[in-house]
Each structure stands twice: as structure tokens, then as C-alpha cells.
């Protein structure tokens, strides 16, 4: 398996990985433009040239980032693809100087095995950071802060966090 930064030519493969998970309401489907705008955040897992997984690390603040759009092809689940992508994203977080990485997930056991814990405090940022984050148009940040403009926890998943 090869892990590499995503390229613009990977957007269709990312959408194909996300589509079955979106149908099962595990992930939220996004428009192509959203993936293109965030392509530099994504990593791709390939086996023999086939895209078998993807994931993104979105920096939200000086010390906080989110793992987004973690998806593995059904035929590759349980074979270490997701773990490898999460490890790469956490390494990138450390390189960027991020101290905490959170995710919104249904795969609680998977993320526990990868060093995450369920968040007791749904918004672990101080009031000054909170007021700055309110200025962001990013819906992921709005969901993290549990703002009224988004449906609270739209998929019913669990907020988890990892201290780096």
C-alpha cells in the first residue's frame, strides 16, 4: 500500500469512496468543488494503482484540527488502510504544530484503537478562540462548535479527540 498526497485528479475517486458511505448516512456527500478546494488536506491510499482509501486533516485553529472524510473501500476494510491514513494524518498534525485532533464518527472503537477518546466537553476551546471560530464560514467548524445555524450533530455520530 502506498500513501500519497491527493491530486486534483483524485476527486472522482474520493467521491466514489464516499458515495456508499453517504448512502448509509455514515459520511456526508459533498459537491466536487468542496473536494477541489480542500484537495491539499487529503491523503490517498493506493494498492497497485487502485485508490482504496482517503482521509483529510483540516486545521481549525493553532492547536486544533479535524480528521474529515476518512473512507476505505468496502473490500479493503479491516486490512489496515484506515489505520495507516489516520497515522499519516496525525503525523501531519504534529508536523503542523497541532496539539489536538478531533473527529465526528460512528466508528468509535476504531478511533479508540487509534488513540482517540470520546469528548466530554463538546467545545474544548476557550472563549476568545470560540469568538474567532464563529467568524469562519466552514460548516465543519460550525458543527464542531454546535452552532444553531447547523443541525446539531447532523448524522448522530460521536465527537472524539486525540491529544498529540
- Let me know the average pLDDT: 86
The number of distinct β-strands equals 7
Strand order of the largest sheet: 1-2-3-4-5-7-6
CATH topology heading = Aminopeptidase
Please state the CA-atom Rg, rounded to the nearest Å. Answer: 15 Å
Return the string of H and E elements: EHHEEEHEHEHHE
What percent of residues are in strands? 25-35%
> Which regions are unreliable across 5 or more consecutive residues at pLDDT < 50?
147-152
What general outline do the C-alpha atoms trace?
Answer: globular
Helicity, as a percent range: 25-40%
Overall tally of domains: 1
CATH domain class name: Alpha Beta
The CATH fourth-level homologous superfamily: Gcn5-related N-acetyltransferase (GNAT)
Number of helices: 6
Q: Strand count, sense and closure of the main sheet?
A: 7 strands, mixed
Class per helix and strand makeup: alpha+beta
What is the CATH architecture annotation? 3-Layer(aba) Sandwich
Structure description:
The protein is of the alpha+beta class and 164 residues long. The chain has a single domain, classed as Gcn5-related N-acetyltransferase (GNAT) (Aminopeptidase, 3-Layer(aba) Sandwich), CATH 3.40.630.30. Helix content is 33%, strand content 27%. It contains six helices and seven strands; from the N terminus they run βααβββαβαβααβ. The longest helix is centred in the middle third of the chain and has 16 residues, at 81-96. The two termini are 25 Å apart. It comes from Arthrobacter alpinus. GO terms for molecular function: N-acetyltransferase activity. Keywords: Acyltransferase, Transferase. Residues 1-138 form the N-acetyltransferase domain. This is N-acetylglutamate synthase.
Amino acid at each position: 500500500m502506498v500513501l500519497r498526497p491527493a491530486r486534483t485528479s483524485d476527486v472522482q475517486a474520493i467521491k466514489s469512496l464516499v458515495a456508499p458511505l453517504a448512502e448509509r448516512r455514515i459520511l456526508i456527500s459533498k459537491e466536487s468543488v468542496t473536494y477541489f478546494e480542500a484537495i491539499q488536506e487529503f491523503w490517498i491510499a493506493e494498492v497497485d494503482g487502485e485508490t482504496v482509501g482517503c482521509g483529510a486533516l483540516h486545521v481549525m485553529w493553532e492547536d486544533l484540527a479535524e480528521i474529515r472524510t476518512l473512507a476505505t473501500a468496502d473490500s479493503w476494510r479491516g486490512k489496515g488502510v484506515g489505520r495507516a491514513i489516520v497515522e499519516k494524518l496525525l503525523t501531519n498534525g504534529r508536523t503542523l504544530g497541532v496539539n489536538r485532533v478531533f473527529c465526528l464518527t460512528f466508528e468509535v472503537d476504531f478511533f479508540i484503537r487509534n488513540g482517540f477518546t470520546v469528548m466530554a466537553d463538546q467545545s474544548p476551546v476557550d472563549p476568545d478562540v470560540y469568538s474567532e471560530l464563529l467568524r469562519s464560514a466552514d460548516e465543519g467548524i460550525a458543527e464542531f462548535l454546535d452552532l444553531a445555524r447547523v443541525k446539531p450533530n447532523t448524522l448522530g455520530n460521536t465527537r472524539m479527540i486525540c491529544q498529540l
